[in-house]
Amino acid sequence: MSGAADPELLQRIRALELKAREVADGLLLGIHHAPHRGRSLEFAEHKEYSPGDDLRRVDWKLFAKSDRYYVKEFEDDTNVTAVMAVDGSASMDYKWEGPGGRGKNGGPTKLDLARTLAGALSYLLLSQSDSVGLMTMAGKIVDYLPPRAKLAHFHEITARLGGLEPEKETNLAACLADLSTRLKERALIIILSDLLDEPEPAMKAIRLMRSRRHELVIFHVLDPSEIEFPFDRLSQFHDLEGPLKLLVDPRAIQKEYKKHFSGFLESVKAECAGAAIDYTLARTDREPASILSSWLMTRAASMGSRGRPAR
Amino acid sequence: MSGLSFLHVGLLLGALGVAAPIIIHFIFRRRAKVVGFPPMRFVLLSYKKVARRLLLREYLLLAARCLMVLFLALALAAPVISRVSRGLARGEKPLAAVMIIDGSPSMWRKAGKASLFETARETASDWIGSLADGDRAGVIDASRLTSIGLLKDPGDAIKAVGELTPSYSTARLVEAVSLASSQLAGAEGHDRVVIVFTDLQASSWTGAWTGGDSVPIRVVDMSEGLVPRNVSIDGLEVKRRSLAREEAAIITAKIKNHGEVDERRTLVRVAMGGQTAAQGFVDLTAGDEVEKEQVITDAPGGAGVVTIEVDDGMTADNSAYFMLSGGQKVRALLVDGDPGTGYLESETYFLEQALDPRLYAKSRVQPAGATPAELNEANLDDYQVLILANVEAVPPRTAAKIKAFVEKGGGLLFTLGDRVRESTYNEIWKDLLPRELRGVKLAYAGATGADEDKVMHLDSSILAGSRHPALALFSDPGQGDLGLAGFWKYFLMQQEVGSEGEVLLRLTDGAPILVEKKYGRGKVMLFAGTADRAWNDLCVHPTYLPLFQQIVRYLGDALVEEDSGKMAAGVVLKIPVATDVTGARVKGPDGAARDAELIEDAGRKSLRVVDTELPGVYRVRFARGGGRPPASFDDERADATIVLNLDPAESDLTKLGKAEIESRVKSGNVTVTAADEPLEASGQESEEKVPFAWLFLYLMVGALIIERALMKS
């Protein structure tokens, strides 16, 4: 489904925008620290005056005490370039509709959650004057919106997110490699994906981006049924992105499945920890605000541990 | 005859329901919920790991469910096993039937789990149980020829059948049929039949036909289809042989394979006193007979058994018993009537050397020397044998003492010489002498030992036919030739007519040289020559030693005798006994002692022992002088020992045909049937239906339990 005139699409975009704002409003300001000193209320340090400095920033009280000119410097939260990399493959268009699941109408698909999280994060970043871009990906980059710092850009982002239609295939590695060529400066890349692509090439691409000094944040979006495999009757499982079909009694393989899947999660977490990548498991049965709140608190704590005050 | 059928055949269509689980299985597969699932990679991985187990479980589940349906359908169809009753065919009259059961050893063979005898007993009980009111039944034990007569109560007849036991004796079926026919003669107004349960063994169809009405005889062949297999000991020879310095017993067993199966490495074991004395192996092809010789050196006296270890199902003829009696030490008193001046001139020197040779360490004779004067004072109770060598005369008191000694069982040997006067001897030893002396004879005038051409010799030909225990040794040429010794002077004896003494040895002129007489419980022997070199040169021949060893041991009842069980078990034993015997008890192989019947006929007494069914060693203890035999006694104190073995004819499994049976039982109305056939095919048969739906219900529950367990797993 696409087209700007589609009322359903417009409704979805509006709902997404509202949801994103609602989520963002409930969160604390600031996701990152600016890499240079700017103007803000938070004092950072004194600097000896040199010609060209703004005279309004001279600390006259200190001049009175020391008879020397110093100017005040403040930390500033701005000027970060962020890109939301949203996985738009068919596997993201999944939610469990069986008993115990959140039903056809009740719960979000993984793509819904990814959209909400991406929208909310975009709003947060734009609100603090950062540049935010959007990349939706499947077998290749489906849509790319370059980063901009205007708040009005938020509407464009949500519009693109709302219009995102799942595609059959995934190639996370290729998409990230493509993104890397498009970014001219260091950026905060927030990946929202189920990472069910071939794990090795995807993690390799992620590590490559990290080596180019981009900061990476991964929201691993998963449906609870993918983790717990709660199916209880003979089912024919088929792959959402391929031809594979398998008739199997799920109770017979549940134990093995959980063992394999938890192994997969652990390996992703370990890879991320090894590459200093911020990893968050985003289950569709959790509220987006809760997911972001937890992430922000964890992130603030980790920043604090690196010598910066936590917010 | 039996068969499977269903009371509700239509319900068997329910078995088609077996298809239901299969169909449901495939429907479920088709109706399986379709689930689009992103992490298929992990589903596939997990499935591969358990696929084989899952598939197996799936097939087992399917099988269990199919079987449940099948068993249910079979149970609902009410299956029954129909058995054609093998009851007795009957006409309009009531029936009188006599069952003859062959319990001989060949019927001990097994066909399946039960022996032929047990199956015969069971079948006979079944048939008696099928008799109607007014019918009568009788039972005859064909080996013991015991009968219960014709009974009206089938319960009593069934009880009698149940009490029948197998026997070691050969069945006497002809006699049994004759007896049955006689019994049935009294069953007026009845249809009559004799039914014989046997394996048709030819040796069982023996016994004399003693008459009886001609009645239908049904012979049930219990061994139909059974492959004949039997190895037996058909005969046993036990011989004594003197080896260099000891005596050996040679046990020769004739072993025959009567079956149709070759028997390899069959172990043959000889045991005495519970210990294995010798053993070896034989190979026997079907129908083959071999003689297996086993040598037992320094064999002790006592009972022994030869056993062949073969699993042929007929154990009774796998053992044969024998007895080696005697062998104990004999104390002999040698009275030297002519001591001379040097030891070589002593009358008893050579005799003493022969009875106790220094190199012959294992001599069983202990000789002691004495003079005639010392004889008067000697206590003869210390000796078993007294030898009077050229003793001129003894005082009457001493003569009386010697007579009493012999009467009580002692042995007395006279050897003669120059000091002996026939008149004196004939007077003093009137009762004891086997024959009266008639004077000394010279072989030829002037004959001496150096003149070989003019001496008499012992007549060896008499030995060939001699079965006397003291001389049996010399029937073996290897023991030396008695005929080589030369006799130039000897006493003549009274003519044989009317004489009591038995001549054991003669000279070539026919003159008796060794004569024996029984006196009381003892034995007396008279050697008509000298024991030294004075009248003959026997003492310098090698045969001198064994001859006098055997004579003294015989007189002392210590001669080794063999009994290889020639008599068959089950026979009536008749044992001649002395006139003073007033009773006897017989101890059988089972250890039980029973009184034996004492029979007196024309002044001769004998014992009659009837209970001899068990093969083995029977020991007899006599009571004398009006006394009673002891209730029990040790084997060593037995007065007589008899060994009985199984009749070798019983081992032959040759079967008899219908025509031969008819000729033996004097009847043209014999029918031979197999054990699993109805008694009479044309007769009325009753069909018994045994339901067994319960079996399928149990099986269904079993399948259900398995299905549940598989589901849980």
Map the helices and strands.
The complex is a heterodimer of chains A (311) and B (713).
Chain A: H1 7-25, E1 37-48, H2 60-66, E2 70-75, E3 81-87, H3 103-106, H4 110-127, E4 131-137, E5 141-148, H5 153-162, H6 172-182, E6 188-193, H7 199-211, E7 215-222, H8 224-228, E8 235-238, E9 245-248, H9 250-274, E10 278-283, H10 288-305
Parallel strand pairs in A: 3-4, 3-6, 6-7, 7-10
Antiparallel strand pairs in A: 1-2, 4-5, 8-9
Helix pairs in contact in A: 1-4, 1-5, 4-5, 6-7
Chain B: E1 2-6, H1 19-30, E2 33-36, H2 40-76, E3 79-84, E4 95-101, E5 110-111, E6 114-115, H3 116-129, E7 136-141, E8 146-147, H4 154-163, H5 173-184, E9 191-198, E10 217-221, E11 231-242, E12 247-257, E13 263-272, E14 275-284, E15 289-297, E16 302-309, E17 319-325, E18 330-336, H6 349-355, E19 365-370, H7 372-377, E20 385-389, H8 396-407, E21 411-415, H9 422-428, E22 437-442, E23 456-457, H10 461-464, E24 486-487, E25 489-493, E26 502-506, E27 512-519, E28 522-527, H11 544-555, E29 561-563, E30 567-568, E31 573-577, E32 581-587, E33 593-595, E34 597-601, E35 604-609, E36 616-624, E37 640-645, H12 658-664, E38 670-674, E39 687-691, H13 693-712
Parallel strand pairs in B: 4-7, 4-9, 9-10, 10-38, 18-19, 18-20, 20-21, 21-28, 30-37
Antiparallel strand pairs in B: 1-3, 3-39, 5-6, 7-8, 11-12, 12-15, 13-14, 13-16, 16-17, 17-29, 22-25, 23-24, 26-27, 27-28, 31-35, 32-33, 32-36, 34-35, 36-37
Helix pairs in contact in B: 1-2, 2-13, 3-4, 6-11
